């Protein structure tokens, strides 16, 4: 299924948004799996070698989800979730450094013994020097998702696109795991994602991208080589854009 004729292009600087599930074993939702983390690292190394400047925003749902802890104060639970993202960021940093990719972790909550504080200009400088920058601890405040953080950070660092790596190969008009008749979009407008409430990113993140004309590409992260295909402009996944229908 296609909406619009939005053209794909190569991207020089990108923000990769990873949910916590990207770090978990393929057959489970929780934990940090070495193979899954190494797969992400290899794909990032591949695009660094192409001269692309990747930043990464990580979630923490494979360790702790604040909204699923009803007996804990929401503010405190969200901070606990932010700490979970730091664990994933350090795991990814370790996997990248093991294959000789220089990496920096920046956090929205100060923890200077293990990471730099978030500084947009410093993050840009790291990217210009060929370093992968991993953003952790979300925006540092409760009630905002890591999807929204990814959109915000992407704009702050001047990314050309926001890449959403998932377990499915794009945006569908229904859950493909439930409905065998579900159809995938090659491209779709932001406004249609918001109106139909398709499960791309949360509405705040999509709206932020729409207001700033930041394209979103939703793709299957676990198919090796897909990050390279996306950044070089191949028609992988679903492009979310502001073009005409």
Describe the protein's architecture and organization.
By secondary structure, this protein is α/β, with parallel strands linked by helices. It has a single domain (13-241), classed as Acetylglutamate kinase-like (Carbamate kinase), CATH 3.40.1160.10. Helix content is 34%, strand content 19%. The chain contains seven helices and eleven strands. The strands form two sheets. Strands 4-3-5-2-1-6-10-11-9 form a nine-stranded mixed β-sheet, sandwiched between helices. Strands 7-8 form a two-stranded antiparallel sheet. Helix 1 links the parallel strand 1 and strand 2. Helix 5 (190-196) packs antiparallel against helix 6 (203-211). The protein is globular and about 50 Å long. The mean pLDDT is 93.
Put simply, the count of helices is 7
**Given the helix and strand composition, which structural class is it?**
alpha/beta
Predict the CATH topology. Carbamate kinase
The SSE string, one letter per element, is: EHEHEEHEHEEEEHHEHE
| CATH architectural type | 3-Layer(aba) Sandwich
Reading off the top of the CATH hierarchy, the class is best stated as Alpha Beta
In helices, the fraction of residues equals 25-40%
Termini separation: 12 Å
The stretches of 5 or more residues where confidence is low (pLDDT under 50) are none
Q: How many structural domains in the coordinates?
A: 1
Radius of gyration: 17 Å
Strand content: 15-25%
Work out the number of β strands: 11
Strand arrangement, major sheet = 4-3-5-2-1-6-10-11-9
What is the 3D shape? globular
Mean pLDDT: 93
- Please summarize the sheet with the most strands: 9 strands, mixed
The CATH superfamily title: Acetylglutamate kinase-like
């Amino acid at each position: 299924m296609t909406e619009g004729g939005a053209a794909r292009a190569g991207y020089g600087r990108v923000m990769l948004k990873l949910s916590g599930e990207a770090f978990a074993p393929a057959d489970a939702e929780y934990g940090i799996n070495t193979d899954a983390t190494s797969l992400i690292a290899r794909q990032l190394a591949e695009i660094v070698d192409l001269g692309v400047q990747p930043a990464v925003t990580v979630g923490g749902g494979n360790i702790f989800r604040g909204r699923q802890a009803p007996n804990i104060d929401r503010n405190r639970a969200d901070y606990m979730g932010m700490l979970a993202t730091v664990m994933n960021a350090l795991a990814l940093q370790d996997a990248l450094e093991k294959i000789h990719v220089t990496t920096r972790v920046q956090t929205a909550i100060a923890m200077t013994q293990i990471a730099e504080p978030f500084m947009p200009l410093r993050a840009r400088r790291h990217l210009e020097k060929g370093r992968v920058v991993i953003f952790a601890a979300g925006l540092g405040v409760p009630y905002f998702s890591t999807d929204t953080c990814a959109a915000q950070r992407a704009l702050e660092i001047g990314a050309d696109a926001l890449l959403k790596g998932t377990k499915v190969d794009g945006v569908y008009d229904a859950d493909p795991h439930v409905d065998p008749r579900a159809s995938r979009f090659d491209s779709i407008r932001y406004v249609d994602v918001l109106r139909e409430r398709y499960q791309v990113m949360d509405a705040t993140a999509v709206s932020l991208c729409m207001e700033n004309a930041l394209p979103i590409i939703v793709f299957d992260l676990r198919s090796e080589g897909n990050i390279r295909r996306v950044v070089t402009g191949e028609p992988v996944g679903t492009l979310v854009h502001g073009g005409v229908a």
